[in-house]
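Progress narrative, Year 2. Work on UTP--glucose-1-phosphate uridylyltransferase from Agromyces atrinae advanced from sequence curation to structure prediction during this period.
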Amino acid sequence: MTQRITKAVIPAAGLGTRFLPATKAMPKEMLPVVDKPAIQYVVEEAVAAGLSDVLMILGRNKNALSNHFDRVTELEQTLTAKGDQAKLQRVMESSELADVHFVRQGDPKGLGHAVLRARSHVGNEPFAVLLGDDLIDARDPLLSRMLEEFENRNATIIALLEVDPESIHLYGAAAIEATDNDDVVRVTGLVEKPSADVAPSNLAVIGRYVLRPEVFGILENTPPGKGGEIQLTDALETMAADVEGTGGVYGVVFRGRRYDTGDKGDYIKAVIQLAVERDDLGPELKPWLKQFVAGLD
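Result:
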């Protein structure tokens, strides 16, 4: 019987060097996307999929993350005294959103090492991993679809996205076989950041995973790979071969809206796209944007 998944792991130990100097003293995960930090969107996605037990893997100088999901009694009291219930509700949303736990990664040895640090919290249970740089639009649910496939197949499930072949070197690329479902493929191999001429496909691995607990034992025995880091992709490559009866690896091909907040240009696009679709901001922003774009050379 397939074990029900209740836990989500969010690696958040990166230095955010692409956003310096903004991230010199503030974690990149706390950069605002309109009026919420990027990390809150990710936690909300996990909760919407039924995973309210969330573990964040942190690096040094990431205290702002734990503070954001904690109570701020003084601010709550001030807003209560002012009778500002709307702002009070928004402040309390993050602290009441989920049961959030934190653990330090220690040495920055890569994504695979960060996932391995979750072992004592997760135990011998399947779990989800959500990367903070990838925001999935709430109107295009991905994680819940992946959880359904896990229940159907009792196998590791990863999220795949078709990208321009010239961009595949930025991602892990999947070699695949078709299944009886157009949106689901069997993954037969994975290559971390291949050049376009050797990539097995243009299906890129994006930051959502549903993993069986056997991944921990495999990660323990995975040597450093590309960049001298322990790569989760290498462990998934082993699992794709169904080593030790791990059930193999399947991919859900995502065709919805995704925002890459780890890239400066895409981060700005995400802010604009999400802002113009809000009832409180869209009516003012849309005509301004049209006028602004019309004036561009």
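Residues 263-297 form one domain. The chain has eleven helices and 13 strands.
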